[in-house]
Amino acid sequence: MQALNHWNLLARRGVTGVLTDIDDTLTTDGAITADALAALAALTAAGLHVIPITGRPVGWSLPFARDWPVDAIVAENGAVAIFSSKKGLRPNQDGREQLSKLYQQDDATRAANYARMQRVARRVTQEVAGAVLAQDSPGRETDIAIDHSEFAQLPPERIAQAIQIMQSEGMNATVSSIHINGWFGAHNKLAGARWIVRELLGRDLDAELARWVYVGDSTNDQLMFEAFDNSVGVANVRRFEAQLTHKPRYITHGERGAGFAEVAAALLAAR
């Protein structure tokens, strides 16, 4: 991981879009900071597309998709996207200025998977000592989340036990800075990024990877760190460094929202 000041000027100048994690990347102590929010606004005002991609639930993400200066938010690790017609990218069918949701899975698949996921969630909370559902679980539609660092604490061996149970049930499982997420389906953050760029912007992300940046902080960002040459970890990613098979190419000086603001400043300085 190189210091952010090693990021090539020409590479920065060619960037047209920013994909970013939310928790502990845009947020600090659970809330977006003024500098990170201002950075989102400045990027958007400069003509860059900005799309957060998060493991947080769709219900939790709705007010931010409405109020933040972003094109859309992809929630639940790539399963569902939320956007506002007033952003001008894609109108709602009824023409009103309200939030719309797009899903990667059809209604029947989501309903069947939801029932299966609740059974796995019960198994995890019964078998893993201290495991509790994340407090944002009521807003989840396509995954389950076990709290390991937000309001409850799980040691590494119990995190590993929860992951093993999810995987034994055929689920995908990943660990963010605060939650263990599990879901059924082939989607993930990278697949979600490809999907929303195609659906919302009509573009092929794989054909223009060099024109996008990804910013993250945790082990569940590894697919993105691997895929994007312009990948940046905010400084708090170092607490997961030993667990990262794929690390970000660059790292900020500041942590969390302050680190994201550094990334924005580096991009804007190159324009």
Shape: globular
Distance between the termini: 24 Å
Low-confidence stretches: none
The helix content is 25-40%
Mean of residue pLDDT? Answer: 94
Number of helices: 8
- Cα Rg: 18 Å
Q: How is the largest sheet built, in terms of strand order?
A: 1-14-13-12-2-5
Order of helices and strands: EHEEEHEHEEEHEHEEHEHEEH
* Count of distinct strands: 14
Largest sheet: 6 strands, parallel
> What oligomeric state do these chains adopt?
single chain
* Range of strand content: 15-25%
Structural class determined from secondary elements: alpha/beta
Description:
With 271 residues, this protein is an alpha/beta fold. It is built from eight helices and 14 strands. The chain has helices spanning 9-13, 34-45, 58-67, 107-127, 156-168, 189-201, 222-227, 256-269, and strands at residues 2-3, 17-20, 27-28, 31-32, 49-52, 73-75, 80-84, 99-103, 144-147, 172-175, 179-183, 212-216, 231-233, 250-251. A six-stranded parallel beta sheet has the order 1-14-13-12-2-5. A three-stranded antiparallel beta sheet has the order 6-7-8, with helices on both faces. A three-stranded antiparallel beta sheet has the order 9-11-10, with helices on one face. Helix 2 (34-45) runs parallel beside helix 8. The longest helix has 21 residues, at 107-127. The two termini are 24 Å apart. The model has no long low-confidence stretch (mean pLDDT 94).
